[in-house]
Amino acid sequence: MTFGERLKQIRTDKGMRTEFLARKIGICRPLVYKYEMDVQYPTLKRFGKICKALKMTPEEFMKGVEL
Hints:
By secondary structure, this protein is an all-alpha fold.
């Protein structure tokens, strides 16, 4: 599973819309789409904000992600 697939899976499992996640981490919605499509990846700081918004640790998030 890619980073983007994992992000989309967690976000949808939590019933969170892309727009809501973008607002919570302070970015625009198209950037979340780029993350989910593996076109672009977040900085470590932004990754931390994503994990916080999804209420999980970075380790929990990365389970199953192929590096």
